[in-house]
Amino acid sequence: MSIEKKPRSIRIDEYLEDSGALPSLADDVRRGLTATSKSLPPKYFYDERGSRLFEQICGTPEYYLTRTEKALLESVAQRIIARVRPRDLVELGPGSADKARVLLDAMQRAGSLGRYIPVDVSPEIVQSSARALTQAYPGLRVQAVIGDFLQHLDKIPGGERRLVIFLGSTIGNLEHGPAVAFLRHLAEALEPGDAFLLGTDLVKSPEMLEAAYNDSQGLTRDFNRNILRVINRHLDADFQPERFRHVAFFNAQRQRVESYLESEVEQDVSIDALDLRLRFRKGERIHTEYSQKYTRDSVEELLSDGGMELLDWFTDPKGWFGLALAQRR
After folding, report:
1. Fewer CB within 10 Å, N side or C side of the chain?
2. What pLDDT is attached to residue 20?
3. What percent of the chain shows pLDDT beyond 70?
4. Res. 24 pLDDT band, cuts 50 70 90
């Protein structure tokens, strides 16, 4: 449904069945926690509390990703905007839209500022950032899509020369098959003149990678555990998050950081909304996230498998992060 918000420059289109609960949570939890190797999709980290925690993680000394990507984006934004000449900026999973401002600044300088179209599951965060952006950029229109970008790409409004951005190396949360399927779906939604900007974290030392996912303040631990709080709240479960240890390490063979919640004791958990009772052994793990790391070659291969072709490649001086500009093949 479409809901007009004040001011009139902001429009919110909601496609989640119930804005108070993510629609597929029950199915995903039942499937993931009754499997032999237990798992939960990382998209459920991001309720309001989880989103705040992630913003804090981005500011920690260990988490180089956000500041490196933003600095890189600032250095190349004008070149990207000059090449694409977009009127609409579409962002998948924007959070606070902090990095979008770098491209909106470049669009404003180029005189091409039109619409900003964030796609996110959190109405509260989208509404807050939309108000801030329309105040910061007079004349900017915001048409937000409240939905899951893995399911609602077809809900993104058409436009004139759109630049779709997917930053933060969020693509790395998907295994190769689902990532390719997502890119193919996105490629089908791109029109002639549209472009796609993908942020990817690059392979580096295991020590640096593991530190980024095990910060000294324990914010990543709390963020990982937050997925259990989401289940407690929406599915009437009785997880005790402090009984699960945060585990994150670099798998060199697969070139990815893997995150888990490990039961520190033998324990029983009830999920009343699913009429489900679970027994966790001491040391048993719930897989919660993959964070794939890339090279230029692997990014180009991924884009090609997803029906896109690489137009340009940007990286920071240390080679820590990559931005790939692509179009539909």
Report:
1. N
2. 43
3. 96
4. confident
CA distance 287 to 102: 34
- CATH number of the domain within which 84 lies: 3.40.50.150
In the chain, helix, strand, coil percent, each to 5?
A: 40, 30, 30
> Would you tell me how many other CB atoms lie within 10 Å of the CB of residue 255?
15
Domain count, the chain: 1
List the domain range (segments joined by +) for residue 192: 2-13+58-205+294-328
- Mark out the alpha helices in 59-151 (DSSP H runs): 64-84, 100-110, 123-136
Give the integer Cα–Cα distance in Å for 283 and 302: 35
- Confirm whether 19 is domain-assigned: no
Instruction: Tell the burial category of 105 from Cβ atoms under 10 Å away from its Cβ (0-12, 13-18, 19+).
Output: middle
In 3D space, the residue among 180, 181, 145 whose CA is nearest the CA of residue 164 turns out to be 145
CA dist list (Å): 11 to 8, 23, 148, 213, 244: 7, 22, 17, 36, 41
pTM: 0.91
CB 140 within 8 A of CB 112: no
Q: Which helix (H) or strand (E) holds 95?
A: none
Would residue 271 count as lying in a domain?
no
Residue 269 lies in a domain: no
